[in-house]
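<context>
A single protein, sequence plus fold
<sample>
Here is the protein in question:
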Amino acid sequence: MSADAGQGAGLTARAASGVLGFVIYLVIALAAVLLADTLDDLGLRSVILILAGMVAIMLAMAMPNRVAALLFLWVFAITYNRHIYSFDEILGDHGSQGLYWLPSDPILFLLVIARFFERGMFRNPHELIAPPVWPLYGPLLGICALSSIYAIRPEWGAFEMIRLLKTGLTLMLLRKLLRPTEWWTIVSALAVIVLVQGAFGILQSVAGGEGGTLGAFGLSAEKAGGARGEVAGRARGTLGHPNIFAPFFLQIVPPFVAMALMVRNRIAALAIGGIATAGLLALVASRSRMPVAVIGLDIFLILIAGVAIKRISIKRAAAMVVLGTTMISLAALPIADKIYERLTGDFKESVEFRQKYNVAAIEMWMTSPILGIGLNNFQEELGRYEPLMKQINQEIESNLRKRANLRTSAPVHNVYLLMLSETGLLGLFAYLVFLLGTIARGIWAVRRTDGAVQAACLGLTTGLVGHLFQQMVDFSLWYDASMLAMIIALAMFSTAPYVSARPPWLARFIDGRETLGSLFVRPKLHRPAASPAPQGVRRPYPPRSGLLRGRP
């Protein structure tokens, strides 16, 4: 009876998987028909990107592990930082505060469907025990919802709440989804992001032109007219602006710096070191003052922490400081004039610009200290305190929002003052609980893992520390790309001990426990079948152990 039941469940799972594939291919076919009808209204770049996305999804569906393939695509797609306001005809034109969707959202939708069919209905009942994430994110959702009710424009707060709810559901999905293969799939996707976006960014910086990312390949054709002014000649990739590109890289490059310094396999260390170097060069090419300074602090923290947990020797740390300083100095010599011009050219104006915004934000907060003026309502009140800033925002929005598909709203350039002004003391407190709780979860993960997983968690944690420090002069962490990168880090922290206890081949190779030859030739091991675990028993995390030396 049990054998028949198992065979029936297997047939049902395969049938559901086939239905899933048919549904997704049908969606792709319908999208292709719609694309054919609108070719005249789309630019060449849009058509190429849409077709590339369809091909990528079809390839992902052909993979043995569809969930991991779609997860890879989704992580990579969040770097295409565009905001598509398709709901304006239904809800009205609310400017940048309106409801929008991201190019990565359709992939996220397919990921949810794939997880439901392949791991939701027919999942193994032995689930891992991961720390919950709702105690960190839940208070922020509650306070933001309360602030939206009392806002001057409650509909704007409702639009932002939809985005925050989607982010929270994504966080819970990732916590349930990540297993060793999926965990390392995200690391691989981040590596590809560093290489691809870094290459685009460096090309933009070297070319110094006003075209878009694809302009170097003759595919620009941007209706928005390309990048001009302070943005031209600076690395921005497909993230739209150097001040979004640089903080994003500030968060995802340190994991590769940490792994390059700590892994035992020399081949893997050199390869990962190349990824880290490409990311550092792209960060410098963005010419963003604060992120470039903070990445040095991140690397210093990685060295200190590596020495503290006995993964890096003091001699090696000192040698890396000397070597890194020398290489940076040599690399900076050819462009010393540009660096000096960037550091001193508009520094005074930049400081004064941010001071005006900061004063306006504090004055807004003083009118409603507990719950603020309302979530997503900063632009509504800005005209009362800084009419010139309001006018600048309106001009940028009229020129770029619809034509470039960008959320062009530029609030106070300090994410903590932004939260304070819009959601009051309660909102800022809840936001700090989320941020500091994520860092605490990262420290927790570092103390309960070893090998490459520990190095990656250490790098993600230090990168997040640097990002939070940088947000005193920026607000990019509240926008989609960096916010999604943060919840990805939180989900990885929460599942890291399980991943460290059951590493896939990639992790074992990086840790020096596998060779390249084992990728092609694997001995067949005859192991006795394990007895099935009782129903309802969940697989716990391994106990806290610091450095697990000698682990098989």
